[in-house]
Amino acid sequence: MCGIIGGICKDNITPILLSGLKRLEYRGYDSAGVVVLSNDNKLSRARAVGKVVNLETSIQKQSPKIQGSLGIAHTRWATHGEPSTQNAHPHICFDTVSVVHNGIIENFLKLKQEQKAQGYAFTSDTDTEVIVHSIHQALKTSESLLKAIQKVVKTFEGTYSLGVISSEYPGHIVVARSGSPLIIGISDKGNFIASDQVALLDITKKFIFLKEGDTADITLNSITIYNQNDRQINRAIKTSNLKNNQIDLGDYKHYMQKEIFEQPQAIRDTLESRITKDTVLLSAFGHHAETIFTNTEHIQIIACGTSYNAGLVAKYWLEDIAKMPTNIEVASEYRYRNPIVLDNTLLITISQSGETADTLEALKSIKKRHKNIHTLTICNCAESSLTRESELILLTHAGPEISVASTKSFTTQLASLALLSVAIGKCHKQVDKQQEASIVDSLNRLPGLIKKTLEQESQIIELARSFKDKFNAIFLGRGTMHAIAMEGALKLKEISYIHSEAFPAGELKHGPIALIDKDTPVIAIAPNDQLLDKLKSNLQEVKSRGSQMIVFEDEMSNVPPMKNMTVMSITHNLGRITAPIIFIIPLQLLSYHVALIKGTDVDKPRNLAKSVTVE
Ligand code: M6R
Fold first, then answer.
1. Which CATH fold topology does 456-603 show?
2. Which residue puts its alpha carbon closest to atom 4 of ligand 1?
3. What is the C-alpha separation between 256 and 404, in angstroms, rounded?
4. Class in CATH terms, 249-452
5. What are the pLDDT digits (tens) for 262-297?
6. Short-list 175, 200, 13, CA closest to 102
7. pLDDT tens across 332-345, in order?
């Protein structure tokens, strides 16, 4: 979490830093700050609590102006220390060294004690402040800023990407990365660093993606990179195919709204070149995929949040379609236990960002401990830590997802997981040509079905009105719809702050039914499947407790109208692949419109960040 940006350029760098910071806000927005080395070689700093716009306002008022050609900036998601100006980055030591940091220094308390004993004063509660003091201390005996940083990073336990400047080394910005993302952008305006390419798209398309353990010394005319052993190394310059308009709002009010409506195209892009009119192409998963899939005997999925919910749906598909035993677990738990991983397991990670620390660390630790397994990641970011750590990669082509609440990444993950279920089923001769053609047909129909569902927005706006004064909500579903209910509940709670829980509808009577009262709306999903009659009985149980109910049904489900129940038909003849992908659409729209009514910050809900690169 936290976004960093910096650079050295021919003109004043401050506007570049501020505009980049705004694009990095998805990584955190508890506070923001900037340090620029002024022409008279002084570090000038501005910091503000909250979003980058507050920093911008404070800079506009500041005199003398914060300007210069070398600078670093940061947008924070608080881990150590509350969101406050004192805790905001950049941190400065003795007016000479300044640091921005993304990650967590786990041994900061020990370092802090040592530094206090050496006379360093601490002005914040952050773990980061030990970094700036360490560098200041190391500079006393190092021949350059780079050497000082290469020395101190070896004393850090945890994760970091760092941007460092010093008034003693004007003209240099030094960076280091381990466990947190960092890229270098090369433009005719100068050389820059950032947590993510999106921050720099206005000024360049040319990027170097630093690897784990890399450090780099950057000046206006040179970039010198060193590997984890401090050996100078060349890293390729890549040209990004991200377009600036992909990250602009256009006519939409919020990114979440834009991203919900982009789903038909995102699914088309994800399927493109991976299916013919009736087959799934195994080559889509990489050269060795066929051999790996054929030898796979078990699947373990690990993921977090929305990506975990996609994995829950996939467990049903992989067992039902490919007949492959599949387990799924949240990465934050999986990484800290000693799971039994059987030989010939395919370990699948699912992630929008590819940088989620829990998922990444779980993958790394299992790879270290178990040799006879293979790994596959389903990820939306090609140049990410997860793609680098995985043997097989299936990219979801959702395009940049800016809103903290995931929407198009979820549906494209599901489309990718459907492809995977067929691919593995084919390798194990569990999917015949007819089944394959039928699933491919379902996938091909998805963009049209999503578009049709989105056209029902006005009805959902009506439904959203009834949530104005609600504090709790319950989501129900059976089978894959339980996973969709979980995703619906996650969407509602994270952007409208309504406490929402999801239950398998059959589990209600074992406890959760005690929560039901007239002030707690129940949202149920009723596809026309083999569990429909069971679900209808569950709805009767809810009705008897006087709750307000909303049922999203397949037109063919014919849920009988009841008092206090609104039934909304979504479409008809949805099958096992199309139903989960289509039924999440009204739930995304419902959360969005409830959040609008509640007046929350839809794209940047409180306490959250898009990319969780810390534990
Ligand atoms: O980037 P990832 O998919 O690995 O992120 C995992 C979760 O943090 C994420 O899915 C989160 O739950 C959603 N943004 C919530 O909408």
1. Rossmann fold (3.40.50)
2. 351
3. 8
4. alpha beta
5. 999 999 999 988 888 789 998 888 888 999 999 999
6. 175
7. 999 888 889 999 99
